[in-house]
Amino acid sequence: MAQHNAFYAQSGGVTAVINASACGVIEACREAPEHINKVYAGRNGIIGALTEELIDVSAESDETIAALRHTPGGAFGSCRYKLKDIDTHRAQYERLIEVFRAHDIRYFFYNGGGDSADTCLKVSQLSEKMGYPLTAIHVPKTVDNDLPITDCSPGFGSVAKYIATSTLEASLDIASMCATSTKVFVLEVMGRHAGWIAAAGGLAGQGEGEPPHVIIFPEVAFDRDAVMAKVDESVRKYGYCVIVVSEGARYEDGTFLADAGNTDAFGHRQLGGVAPTLAGMVKQDLGYKYHWAVADYLQRAARHLASRTDVEQAYAVGREAVALALAGKNSMMPAIRRITQAPYQWDVISAPLSEVANQEKFMPRDFISEDGFGITPACREYLAPLIQGEDFPPFKNGLPVVAKPELKQVEKRLPEFTL
Amino acid sequence: MAQHNAFYAQSGGVTAVINASACGVIEACREAPEHINKVYAGRNGIIGALTEELIDVSAESDETIAALRHTPGGAFGSCRYKLKDIDTHRAQYERLIEVFRAHDIRYFFYNGGGDSADTCLKVSQLSEKMGYPLTAIHVPKTVDNDLPITDCSPGFGSVAKYIATSTLEASLDIASMCATSTKVFVLEVMGRHAGWIAAAGGLAGQGEGEPPHVIIFPEVAFDRDAVMAKVDESVRKYGYCVIVVSEGARYEDGTFLADAGNTDAFGHRQLGGVAPTLAGMVKQDLGYKYHWAVADYLQRAARHLASRTDVEQAYAVGREAVALALAGKNSMMPAIRRITQAPYQWDVISAPLSEVANQEKFMPRDFISEDGFGITPACREYLAPLIQGEDFPPFKNGLPVVAKPELKQVEKRLPEFTL
């Protein structure tokens, strides 16, 4: 089998472990020199392929590639750039094939969520139509945990571990302070469409009265009176109340909590997220002193607290993507399969992209407790293995060590292309 | 020497390592059974002494006490309750002595910041006047790092490590996204009066252009135009800008940024902290897409990422407090002394409370760079050793293991007392 080059790109919001997948892809490619010559990475994701800004990954040392496994963020740059409709913007897709052809790229590894699975599929279909031999594999990644078929999405387990741990730690803080000070703590977490991450906060407590006392999911219409009654009940019973709220919390009519028509004097939408909005309601309705935190990027960048399970799965899907490509499987995605629950065992299977693209996996209703404010034992059973194990990065001078790739650019061979 | 009891209480905002000091105090007391009989802890701090709600620490197992070393929050409860002026509210102080007398408490260990050092001193002075033999030792603790004499305050090093690490990790996130998405990331940190914690964010980067690009200190009057010019410059030069802002950021006239006169339709002060306020300015003045995070309790509860140096110092001052008491030193505070810088070596000395109480240590002006947006090499040299070393807690089922003390209450012997 002849040697050709491979292309790898990161897409969408990055995670604590997307570089672990990159590490898996690159290391597996390096182990197959009889098939794969060089690995090129798209600078800033798929945009790098369109603009022919390719990073020569073969110039990076084995140590740098190994260090990707414990480096958060997207080492080659990612992008929020969805290729336009193939019928109206065919030129974009054709450009990709042109760049691939110019650099002898026959393997396309696209590391992202649902949108990129769709792009990956379309690129694969077009290359076939154009008679260009390309093997396109999607490498799953999303903190939102909403990819279908795969039991979980690499990236989610580490956010889940971070949120569960942070909820536990902050709960001990407020529990110590509540006698004379803060009574309500609100932690805002990611997940605009699904409550997976908020649900992970629920892992912090198990027994009766253990925080978090209230979880607010995007799946459950926000009822201010019901929430405030629950908060008040917690403060009266336990002395304090810990709330984990999804950024996607919304009213019955779909309006987001953070966008409830509040505008400043200039008519601009009011600043601030769900946490301060909710904290303000607590103050207004119940008069309790509050604190609130918004984890934002911290939660998905917290490689220092990654789930070992998640790191291993992210790395494994990267390696499996290469194995699939070398086995001639096209338009596929490696997926995690849960084999047994206790002990938790998993392996990597594969799924056709046609079954992955444009499908979203929502949280089952029976994962949310009847009152809408907690997780059920079924949810706990699903989530618990995903945060198992630690995989601390090496530290130097008190800080995590991260990969510092050279990002050497490959010489361009084609005319400029305007996005 | 006869046996008497000891009293330990936690005061003010808790930290990731205040329980490590508790562990030091309690373990050292247990090693001196010839002098110290039982250790009682104040439930919710000094309030527990006033209301005679004493926790019988001798009922806790050695394992539970050892586990305090890796448990964040305040295991016995803390409080924000400053004893009133001794001249006008002498009854409160007399009540403390009364409770101590009723329970044969001759050792008073008070674990807190500047205010509690002052209280500790006053209690000591009054007991002397009243002829009650009490040895009062203050155990230093504050994330604000503003205690005098001690080289650093136990609790600060762990927050510093958390903020430096989080800044580093989130910076890698935004660096990956900035080509097509977020250009500015704002991280709000604690420190209403001093910029020590904000300064710690500066440890994340060293070389030219490494984030954070802008640190906003309470010590430097906020100049919107100057800040926005710096942010814009960073985005143009590096593609993005990371800002670490202290919650205490303020204008020349002392007004806090977050309180800049913004009120909602009901005339309530606008919700939200400094981070969203600053992010809003970025959007308004520069038009850049932003993300912001508010770490709040997460930063001071993050025992999972504690500085080993900080844990060791917190534990050491706890033990040393007992040693001082047993040596008959009264009205003292153990303090950290920096012996050498490289390698970093420290020991514990002691300081009279009269020199500690009501003194605040501010950040030296030469720790802030000339333009006011960064830290100087002198600051870096001071801060660097404080975040050295990791001291990960044990984990079980993916979550940190924490102490679960029984908190058995000692039988009351006195009439009720109203606060």
From TrEMBL, chains A, B:
It holds the Pfam family PFK. Diphosphate binds at G13. Substrate binds at T142, V143, D144, M190, G191, R192, E247, Y297, L298, Q299, R300. Keywords: Cytoplasm, Glycolysis, Kinase, Magnesium, Metal-binding, Transferase. Its cofactor is Mg(2+). The record marks D115 as: Important for catalytic activity and substrate specificity. Residues 9-322 form the Phosphofructokinase domain. Pathway: Carbohydrate degradation; glycolysis; D-glyceraldehyde 3-phosphate and glycerone phosphate from D-glucose: step 3/4. Non-allosteric. The active site is at D144. The keyword ATP-binding does not apply. The record marks K141 as: Important for catalytic activity. It is found in: Cytoplasm. The keyword Nucleotidyltransferase does not apply. Its EC number is 2.7.1.90. It catalyses: beta-D-fructose 6-phosphate + diphosphate = beta-D-fructose 1,6-bisphosphate + phosphate + H(+). Catalyzes the phosphorylation of D-fructose 6-phosphate, the first committing step of glycolysis. Uses inorganic phosphate (PPi) as phosphoryl donor instead of ATP like common ATP-dependent phosphofructokinases (ATP-PFKs), which renders the reaction reversible, and can thus function both in glycolysis and gluconeogenesis. Consistently, PPi-PFK can replace the enzymes of both the forward (ATP-PFK) and reverse (fructose-bisphosphatase (FBPase)) reactions. NCBIfam families: PRK14072.1 (NF010675). Belongs to the phosphofructokinase type A (PFKA) family. PPi-dependent PFK group II subfamily. Clade 'B2' sub-subfamily. Homodimer. This is Pyrophosphate--fructose 6-phosphate 1-phosphotransferase. It comes from Halomonas cibimaris.
